[in-house]
Design a protein that fits this description.
229 residues; alpha+beta; 4-stranded antiparallel sheet; 3 helices; elongated
């Protein structure tokens, strides 16, 4: 009986186990490439999510500002304001300053709150903010402080023009006799607001025709004509 000599077995006949150094290096290289690609994709998704979140916040602020201006302009009324014994026109647009009279304030507790107030939009370029100032009464002294709130942030450009129907950067316009109270009670047809927010340009147009107020005026005029003194 003849025995086989294990020493005579060739290396190729032995069972191989484990990985070679080259195989490990190749595997590590592939893993590193896949990890880098995965991180780039993950980082891109995070940035997209952040941009979408920022866009949603900006859009929400724009919608709130637009709705606030819409409420104010819908309630604009041709009423003068007595500010520190100076009769102001119903709407003033002079040298970038813009304010007007509005109505619609409710008084559910019967505290004697005036239904009318004065609203002003004030743009501060150094802060890139648009402010809304509110005077609780059309008749006030120069010492009365308005309620101030930020209407919009990140505003790099801001401009208001009146429409009557043509655009104008000043109101009252033309040769208006400011000593005539009836001339001070005239409102333009509307206003146009041009603004730049976060490098995006917007243009808003609002009507200043308060139909409810006009109906009330016409009703009072009809009652007066039907009941002469």
């Amino acid at each position: 009986m003849q025995l086989k000599n294990k020493k005579n077995q060739t290396p190729h006949s032995r069972h191989r186990s484990g990985f070679t150094l080259v195989e490990l290096l190749v595997a590590i290289a592939i893993f590193a490439v896949l990890s880098a690609l995965g991180w780039k994709v993950f980082d891109y998704l995070i940035k997209v999510k952040e941009r979408n979140t920022e866009h949603e916040v900006n859009l929400g602020q724009l919608q709130e500002a637009y709705q606030q201006v819409l409420r104010d302009t819908v309630q604009a009324v041709p009423l003068t304001a007595n500010i520190n014994s100076d009769i102001q026109p119903a709407l003033v647009l002079q040298n970038g300053r813009f304010n007007f009279s509005k109505t619609g304030v409710t008084d559910p507790l019967q505290q004697g709150i005036s239904p009318d107030e004065r609203v002003e939009y004030q743009y501060r370029a150094d802060e890139k903010k648009l402010y809304r100032l509110k005077y609780r009464n059309l008749n006030s002294s120069g010492r009365d402080q308005p309620e101030s709130s930020v209407l919009l942030n990140g505003v790099s450009q801001f401009e208001i023009v009146v429409l009557n129907p043509n655009e104008s950067t000043a109101w009252p316009e033309g040769q208006v006799d400011l000593n005539d109270a009836t001339q001070k009670q005239i409102l333009p047809k509307g206003i146009k607001i041009k603004l730049m927010v976060k490098d995006v340009a917007y243009e808003w147009i609002f009507s200043l025709l308060n139909t409810d107020y006009l109906k009330l005026q016409n009703s009072n005029q009809n009652n007066n004509s039907n009941n002469p003194t």
